[in-house]
Specification:
203 residues; alpha/beta; Rossmann fold; 2 domains; two-stranded antiparallel ribbon
Amino acid sequence: MTPVSLVLFDMDGVLCRYDRAARIAWLSSLSGRSSREIQAAIWDSGFETLGDAGAITAADYLRGFSERIGHPLTLEEWLTARKVSMTPSAEVLDLVRRLKARARVAVLTNNNTIIRDRIDHLLPELRPLFGEAIFASAEFRRAKPDPEIYRRCLDRLGASPAEALFIDDLPENVAGAVAAGLRGHRFTAARPLAAALERFGLL
């Protein structure tokens, strides 16, 4: 079996704890709409999925977001709402530091390109660990768990599926990676992740 030489990480729910409720609460206080209305307008409607899949541009995404919550949202306000929902996972980031001695690392997150372009503001802990290898699904015009997104990301990295391990907290996203030929691990906590990395000879 080909040794793992690249570990591809999801962001929300793995490298950071993601609290959508906190994000929605901040947007609710800003717009005057209820949390239930915002959840329905952005997530339940499928709008956020369009952004993740790159079906709309970043400008159209921000414009559409504003229209749906009934508030002329600025980029800075959108970023503030996003940032309050993200808490870096110190334990997982420490594992990334350790495994970098034996493998390349990269990020593949289901998100619009604003996330990629403003990651240094939203989660500055990532750049020192991952450099430029931080990818948002929208740039590939696909979203996880579509197997094609993993292939496109690996092409960008110059790696083959056989040498890659994918880490995600959602089982369907791990299944998509496995269907694309990668190995996969469903993230639940840092300790089981460390054990999985040890089994692959990465720690």
